[in-house]
Each structure stands twice: as structure tokens, then as C-alpha cells.
Specification:
The radius of gyration is 20 Å and the shape is globular. It has a two-stranded antiparallel sheet with strand order 1-2. It has ten helices and two strands. It has 257 residues and is mostly helical. The protein has two domains: 101 residues, no CATH class; 149 residues, no CATH class.
């Protein structure tokens, strides 16, 4: 059994190196955003950190990009939100800690429930980051990027369920999110929490994430029972509708982005 010991030692060392490199990367991105006026170096670091996507033959690049698109969305959004939180160092540190948890705990998981959570995080932070920086962009660009986010997270969920028609259903959900993007482009509100610097909480991100949660619960019910059972979706539906109504009425005009 002696031959097992070096293998175990290498495994432990590999795990330590993996954790250390991911933590170091997140901290370096924070340091770059904090010390450099332009966010461009941080975006370059994020791109370089995804080198494994391209460490294969070019014909596999597209497949790797598609497989890692949710992680790319989260990583790019992390930089956007870090920049938006400039002036509130403690918020930037909190965002960095959350990103480290994403890299070490949530992202590597292949359990269905956690894969769904990965998609939920990608949907929320992706829309939040896009809403924060796109107020001066063309509406068409915002709609296309919203579609990309919606399609990517839906594909991420549906492949976890081994859905045979994942491509068509992902396209449909992408169109739904794109429509939300078009509406929120003209109705783009966010909430100033008072302690997050210039980082605002996007109304569009909250509503889209809630609708995504409801859609996933409906699909999960159908996947298990071949029908959407009312008992499975009534609470998610009430939660989604209630929070959305409150956001659009009571807090609908707090602050425009």
C-alpha cells in the first residue's frame, strides 16, 4: 500500500494549491480594482484565469466556452460590481469573499440542486451588473446580452436535468429574459442601500431572478410528475408575485440607474 501515499500526498497538495490560487486570484482582482482607475486590468485577469478553456485544440473551444459560460458571466459581473462599489471597501471585501465561495464551493459542484443554484447566481449577478453599466448603451445591445444570460442559465439548468429539448427551451427562456431586458431598459430602477457606495441593487435583477426561480420550480414539477402540480408551485408563485408587486408599487420609483 506504500504506492498510495505519494498519490494521496499529491492530492492534498493539489487541493491546497487549487484553493490558494483561487483565493489569490480573487484578492489580486480586488487589489487591482482598488488601486487602478480603469477596470480593464481586472477584466484581463478574469480572462487569463479561464486559460483552461483554451488549453485544448481549437475545435473544442466553443464547447468549453458554452460549458463555462455561467462561470464567465459570474466572474465578469464580479468585476463590474467591484468597480461599482468603489468607495466602500468593506462591500468590495464582502463581494470578494462571496466570489471566493463561488470559486471554491459552488462552481465545482455537479449536484443538481447546486447546479441550479449556480444558474440562479449567474442570472442575478449577470442582470445586476448589466443593469448597472448599460444605461447609456443601445437598447439592442442590452437585449442581446440579456438573451445571452437567459439562454446560458437555462441551458445550465436543463442539461442538469438531462432535458432532451434543452436547446429549444433555453432559446425560449432567453427570449423571455430578453423581453424583460427591453422593458427594464426603459424602466431601469435600482435601490440605494445607503452603505454600498455607488453600488445599487437592481430591480431588474431581483424580478428576473424571481421569475427564473418560479420557472425552475415549474419545470422541476413537470420533470418529476409529467405535469405541473399546483402544490409544487403555489408557494414559489405567491413569493414571486408578491415581491414583484411590492417592488413595482411600493419601491418602484426609489432611484433610477
Amino acid at each position: 500500500m506504500e504506492f498510495l501515499r505519494p498519490s494521496r500526498r499529491r492530492t492534498v497538495l493539489s487541493d491546497i494549491a487549487y484553493i490558494g490560487l483561487n483565493v489569490l486570484m480573487a484578492v489580486i482582482i480586488l487589489a487591482v480594482v482598488y488601486s487602478v482607475a480603469s477596470p480593464l486590468p481586472a477584466f484581463i485577469l478574469v480572462i487569463l484565469s479561464k486559460w483552461r478553456i483554451f488549453a485544448v485544440r481549437p475545435q473544442y473551444w466553443y464547447a468549453n466556452i458554452v460549458a463555462n459560460i455561467v462561470d464567465i458571466i459570474v466572474s465578469v459581473s464580479f468585476v463590474v460590481l467591484l468597480v461599482a462599489a468603489s468607495g466602500a471597501l468593506y462591500v468590495q471585501i464582502a463581494l470578494t469573499a462571496l466570489y471566493i465561495l463561488w470559486l471554491l464551493l459552488l462552481k465545482p459542484s455537479s449536484k443538481r440542486a447546486l447546479v441550479v443554484s449556480q444558474a440562479g447566481v449567474g442570472l442575478f449577478v449577470g442582470v445586476a451588473a448589466l443593469a448597472h453599466i448599460s444605461s447609456e448603451w443601445w437598447a439592442s445591445v442590452v437585449v442581446v446580452l440579456m438573451w445571452l444570460i437567459g439562454y446560458s442559465v437555462a441551458r445550465h439548468v436543463l442539461t442538469a436535468y438531462k432535458e432532451p429539448h434543452f436547446a429549444l427551451l433555453s432559446l425560449i427562456w432567453g427570449l423571455v429574459v430578453a423581453e424583460i431586458g427591453w422593458l427594464t431598459y426603459h424602466w431601469n430602477f435600482a435601490y440605494d442601500l445607503g452603505f454600498t457606495g455607488s453600488l445599487l441593487l437592481s430591480q431588474a435583477a431581483i424580478v428576473t431572478a424571481l421569475l427564473g426561480f418560479l420557472a425552475e420550480r415549474m419545470y422541476s414539477s413537470y420533470h418529476q410528475h409529467q405535469t405541473i402540480r399546483v402544490t409544487d408551485v403555489v408557494l414559489p408563485a405567491l413569493l414571486t408575485v408578491s415581491i414583484t408587486i411590492i417592488l413595482l408599487t411600493v419601491f418602484g420609483t426609489v432611484k433610477g440607474v
